[in-house]
Amino acid sequence: MAWESIKQNIKTSAQDSLGLQELKQHKLWFDEECLGFLNQRKQDKMQRLQDLSQSNVDNLNVLSRAASRHCRNKKKEYLKAKIEELENNSEIRNIRDLYGGIIGFKKGYQRRTDAVKDEKDDLVADLIVFWLGGGTI
């Protein structure tokens, strides 16, 4: 309980001094269904840690496979749609969008460092952020 109040105090003071900035979602294929699967898997993992019975272990394994399968299929559908979009850009000779999409595929995830500053422009922390380079997102 004490750690929860300390955590909450730190969060509120940081939000008051620095403000709250939402991180951009770069995984366009990741939707509410994927989030639901992952939250369910997280709850089952916590339940398994509390009770190590074989049924909890089996249930967690089943949910983990289902979550992985669902997210993998969503990502595969998204990539197929992107490839079809690139093919369409090639057919209609939309060269700028075609090469922008190709560069995005080639670069993949790029690492970027963001600096967090307070209102006095003093450096508070360096954050490493991953983003999908190139193309239109």
Q: What does this entry look like structurally?
A:
The chain is an alpha+beta fold and 137 residues long. It has one domain. It has four helices and two strands. The chain has helices spanning 2-18, 32-50, 54-91, 95-107, and strands at residues 109-117, 123-132. It has a two-stranded antiparallel ribbon with strand order 1-2. A hairpin with a 5-residue loop joins strand 1 (109-117) and strand 2. Helix 2 (32-50) packs antiparallel against helix 3 (54-91) and helix 3 (54-91) runs antiparallel to helix 4 (95-107). The two termini are 41 Å apart. Residues 129-137 have low confidence and may be disordered.
Strand order of the largest sheet: 1-2
The description of the largest β-sheet is: 2 strands, antiparallel
Give the amount of beta strand, in percent: 5-15%
Form type: flat
Low-confidence stretches: 129-137
**Radius of gyration in whole Å, from Cα?**
21 Å
Structure summary, number of beta strands: 2
Count of domain modules: 1
Helix content: 55-70%
Helices, strands, pairings?
Blueprint lengths: L1 H17 L13 H19 L3 H38 L3 H13 L1 E9 L5 E10 L5
Helix pairs in contact: 2-3, 3-4
